[in-house]
Every structure is written in structure tokens, then in C-alpha cells.
Design goal:
alpha+beta; 7-stranded mixed sheet; two-stranded antiparallel ribbon; 9 helices; 9 strands
């Protein structure tokens, strides 16, 4: 049923699931158009994202619109899209007080989306390297494990030569509106190990898209910055139930990052990202670029990398 569930009770994340479902096609078209940062249709590089998000860094005019930033910008507290049909009001940031009440500022952008800031050089693992292993936590209070341990277990259980390492954060409106479902379809059944990360767009400190509290994509439970493992486990469990709407019951194994955000930093996965690896060796086959840019290119990468995943 996905986004089109018929009531709040049937949706683990959406406050207006019917509206979110009805708008999915339009949102995909509109948001992918806004976030296509290149002339080409391939996935994008860090540099291409940085040039797009801070146009003044490449001597282009800053137009002060959603998705672009500038050191001299005014804080964004309230914005509208689609001719005023979609209002994005960062109410919880206002209520949180200084410095959050200024809304989305250049400082907030650099803090929460630093990989997309001009001059940042990626340190993330690349294709051909062995995926770094790291501790992951159970969302149900069980014993911790490691990323590659669980990836290999999943591959063995599914008879797969490949595994997707899917680093997730449902507060990103792109992810919950359509991107998570589109990536699942592109994978063609290749198993994915999900790891929930630090919050991508906590309503109290970085409601980037402004769609957390208002808009048809708003969440049915507000998600502030994670302060405890219990906070992270709660939203990870709800994200898992959301994924199961299209993965199938029990088909979206979910773990979470440690509270020092080690995996997020290692894989530069903010706000969400996927790596595809060979299960036996742990070698990286493909890496998606920064999200949510050039989604068509990302889906093509997933489809190609996951082909022939069955043993």
C-alpha cells in the first residue's frame, strides 16, 4: 500500500497518508526536477552538488530558493511551493529558540550538510575498496553486531552474491515521499541491510525541507534531534514498518548507528545513501552520490550494480 494507506493508524510515518500517496507522482516529478544538479543524467559528484547548492562559489547568482545556500543568506523560517499550495513552516525550530529560531541559515547548512558545502573533499570509501566494518546496534535491545557480519548473514539467508548497505533517515522528505520505494524497485530483489543514522532533518534544529511539521508530507510523530539510543530506536522501528509496506513483512532488516554516529561519518551517508557490496569479500561494487540529487542517475547505478545478484 505504501504512501497510500487509508488512515493515520495504518501509516507508521505519515500524518496524511492518503494525501502523501496521491501526491507521490507529482512530488517525484517536481522534487527530482528541483534536485537535478547537472545537464547530464548520471549520478552526480560532490563537486557538482557543491556548485549547485552554493552558486556564488562558482560565480553564479544566488536566487534564494529552496535547495540553494549562500554565506550572506537570510534565515529561512517559512517558504511555499507549488504556487502556495505547499507551505513549509519550521515551527519547531522557532519554538526551540536561538540559534535554531532563525530557521535554515548558512551555518545550519554547513553543520548538517557539510559534504555539500564548497571545498569539502570526500573521505568516503570508494568502488573497489573493502567496505569498512563497524559496530551497529539492535533496534530491539538485542546484542550489537557489525555491519559486515549482518550483511554476510543476510546474503547467506537470501542466496545472494551482493548486498545493499542502505543508510536511512526517514525525516528527509525525498526519502519518504518516493526515493526509498524507487530504490527498492531498482534493486530488483537484491537484499538490503538497513542502518538508521543520525537524524537527517530533526524538527527542532534542522527542518531543512520544512516538510516535517507542515505540508502533506508531514510526519505523524515529530522527530527531534536524537538524544538517546531509545530515541533513535523508536524512529528506526517506524521506518522499518514503512519500508515493509513495499519490501514485505520481515524483509527490511533494520539496525542503527551508534550514538557517536561513526557509520554516518565513515560512509558520509547524510541524509541517506546506499553502497552495494560483494557479500563474500565486502568489496564495494557501487556507491551512490550525495542524496537526493540526480535520482534517475542513482536508480541506474542501483539497477546495474544489483543485476545478477542471485547465486
Amino acid at each position: 500500500m505504501g504512501c497510500g494507506a487509508s488512515s493515520v493508524e495504518q501509516s507508521p510515518i505519515f500524518a496524511e497518508p492518503m494525501m502523501a500517496g496521491m501526491m507521490q507522482g507529482n512530488m517525484r516529478s517536481m522534487m527530482n526536477g528541483l534536485m537535478k544538479v547537472t545537464v547530464h543524467n548520471n549520478d552526480c559528484t560532490y563537486q557538482e552538488v557543491q556548485d549547485f547548492m552554493t552558486p556564488s562559489s562558482v560565480n553564479k547568482p544566488f536566487l534564494d530558493k529552496p535547495g540553494t545556500f549562500d554565506p550572506k543568506m537570510e534565515g529561512r523560517v517559512k517558504e511555499s511551493m507549488m504556487g502556495g499550495m505547499m507551505v513549509m513552516h519550521r515551527k519547531k525550530m522557532v519554538e526551540a529558540g536561538p540559534p535554531h529560531n532563525k530557521g535554515i541559515t548558512w551555518e545550519k547548512f554547513c553543520e548538517h550538510r557539510g559534504y555539500a558545502a564548497p571545498g569539502y573533499k570526500s573521505k568516503a570509501p570508494q568502488v573497489g575498496e573493502i567496505a569498512p566494518d563497524a559496530k551497529i546496534l539492535s533496534i530491539d535491545g538485542g546484542a550489537p553486531s557489525t555491519l559486515l557480519t549482518e550483511a554476510k548473514k543476510l546474503a547467506a539467508a537470501k542466496g545472494s552474491k551482493k548486498v545493499i548497505l542502505s543508510f536511512d533517515a526517514v525525516t528527509c522528505p525525498f526519502y519518504r515521499a518516493y526515493a526509498a520505494q524507487d530504490m527498492y524497485k531498482a534493486a530488483g530483489g537484491c537484499p538490503a541491510l538497513h542502518v538508521y543514522l543520525r537524524e537527517a532533518e530533526p524538527c527542532d534544529v534542522f527542518d531543512a525541507g520544512g516538510m516535517h511539521v507542515t505540508s502533506p508530507l508531514r510526519l505523524n510523530k515529530l522527530v527531534p534531534w536524537h538524544k538517546t539510543e531509545a530515541d533513535r530506536a523508536d524512529i528506526a522501528k517506524r521506518t522499518q514498518r514503512f519500508l515493509e509496506e513495499f519490501h514485505g513483512k520481515g524483509e527490511a532488516p533494520m539496525w542503527m548507528d551508534t550514538m557517536d554516529d561513526n557509520i554516518e561519518a565513515t560512509y558520509e551517508a547524510r541524509p541517506w545513501r546506499q553502497y552495494i557490496i560483494e557479500a563474500a569479500s565486502g568489496k564495494i561494487i557501487a556507491v551512490l552520490g550525495l542524496a537526493p540529487f540526480n535520482m534517475d542517475g542513482k536508480l541506474a547505478v542501483i539497477k546495474s550494480a544489483c543485476a545478477g545478484w542471485k547465486k
